[in-house]
Amino acid sequence: MTAQSSRETTSAAPRNRFERRRAETRRALVRAARQILAETGDTSASIQTIAERADVGFGSFYNHFVSKTELFDAAVTDALEEFGRAFDERLDGIDDPAELVAAGFRLSARMADSHPELMRVLRHRGLGHIHSGTGLAPRALRDLERGTATGRFTPVDATVALSAMGGSLLSLVELRFARPDLDGDETAARMAELVLRMLGVAAPEAHEVARRPLPGPVG
Q1: What's the pLDDT score for residue 217?
Q2: The pTM is what?
């Protein structure tokens, strides 16, 4: 190794460590914001409170975000992307758009138990992100458009249909937290069946599709 390359390696190492620490600080702030959103949905917590929960210095906040609004938006985006990735992993290999829609509702109901923090963020803040470019929205829009293009669904305005599906999903999540005594799987299957019928799937088939075995492990 030449002296020059040695100096470059030495000078590069602190920069890499700095970037790793910086990224971890940002993740800690986002995690803290997600926890607050999951607990109360309240965004009035002070920056000092957020920093203390994240276990970072107060000044670190402004190294990453210009305002609390930006942080909480990042926290919701982070939660929605985690939600979307979980669905991608579980539903990989399913080609039928109707089955994908139904499975999405049923998995959401189960995730109220397996991923409660994530689902509480969705419960408190999901309405404003039904047409978001992250999370489930672009995936649902893709399935709607594919279902319409292949004749699986009745031709509808995809944006309007996405609004109806998103509202139904958020209502299902709310119901799961408000009425934990209900059979979550059956309630979700019934909601999925109604949505499929709204999209033009015949009633008997909608009933069957909404109760197909889910791929992967339960939860």
Answers
A1: 54
A2: 0.76
Kindly compute the dihedral angle of the four CA atoms of residues 94, 98, 99, 102, in this order, to the nearest 10 degrees. Answer: 140
Phi, psi of 16 (to 5 degrees): -65, -45
pLDDT at 216: 66
In contact, 177 and 113? CB cutoff 8 Å: no
SS3 state of residue 215:
coil
Could you tell me which CATH class the domain 3-65 is placed in? mainly alpha
* Contact by Cβ (8 Å): 100, 91: yes
**CATH fold of 73-209:** Tetracycline Repressor; domain 2 (1.10.357)
Residue range(s) of every CATH 1.10.357.10 domain in the chain: 73-209
Distances in whole angstroms, Cα of residue 51 to Cα of each of 57, 115, 143: 6, 24, 40
Tell me what percent of the residues of the chain surpass a pLDDT of 70: 91
Spatial CB neighbours of 201, under 8 Å, sequence gap ≥ 6? 98, 152, 153, 209
Res 212: pLDDT: 93
pLDDT, tens digit, 9 for 90 and up, residues 84-128: 888 888 888 899 999 999 998 998 888 888 888 888 888 888 888
Residue that has been written with the tokens 């293009």 in this structure: 149
Listed residue (82, 80, 102, 77) closest to 91, CA to CA: 102
